[in-house]
Design brief:
single chain, alpha+beta, two-stranded antiparallel sheet
């Protein structure tokens, strides 16, 4: 079976997801936890009072905006988390807060943020390099058989991609003449002289 570009792209994406997906999710979770910790740091004295107020009395946000080592950063809470903030800290333009803190480079939260950024940059660089290498291998062969001969370790991924594509290609055949009839479409040879002149 021929290996087409759609196969190649899907196979590459699945290989990369298998290798790097959980690590990127871990970094996303670290970002979300950092957002919660910044919220707790800024609102530590007011948090219990804010949470005691009836729902709707205070604006709720899904993340925080903070200055870290001179750079403005927006960090989202874990998915589905909304927390109350004082009215003067809520942004009119986004679902995050206004800038709620200016953390210098030596602050523990700043150090954690930089570590996450560095880890993500290293991981993305590595993933991009592996992506180019995978693409090179996938485009060096033209058939599924040849790919599996060269790279048998990815047989489960290749099989899942090829079978999914084959299912889509094996849709029931539709007869054009029946489709035309059901849609009221008439071919050129079937048109009356009046219909032909109108066209």
């Amino acid at each position: 079976m021929k290996l087409n570009n759609a196969h190649r792209q899907k196979i590459r994406d699945l290989i990369l997801e298998r290798r790097y997906g959980s690590e990127l999710e871990r970094l996303d979770a670290a970002d979300a936890q950092l957002a919660l910790d910044i919220y707790d740091h800024v609102f530590s004295e007011d948090r219990s009072r804010m949470h005691e107020l009836p729902h709707g009395w205070l604006p709720r946000v899904i993340g925080v905006k903070v200055q870290i080592s001179g750079s403005m950063v927006e960090l989202s809470f874990p998915r589905g988390t909304e927390l109350p903030v004082p009215h003067d800290k809520a942004s009119d333009w986004s679902d995050c807060t206004e800038c709620i803190a200016d953390l210098n480079a030596r602050h523990e939260l700043s150090k954690r943020y930089r570590a996450i950024v560095n880890d993500r940059a290293t991981l993305v660089t590595e993933r991009d390099q592996r992506s180019a290498e995978i693409t090179g291998v996938l485009y060096s062969v033209t058939t599924v058989k040849r790919l599996l001969d060269e790279w048998p370790e990815i047989e489960d991924i290749v099989t899942s991609v090829v079978q999914a594509r084959e299912v889509n290609r094996n849709l029931p055949t539709v007869r054009i003449d029946k489709l035309n009839k059901s849609l009221g479409l008439v071919g050129p040879s079937e048109r009356t002289d009046t219909e032909a002149a109108a066209v």
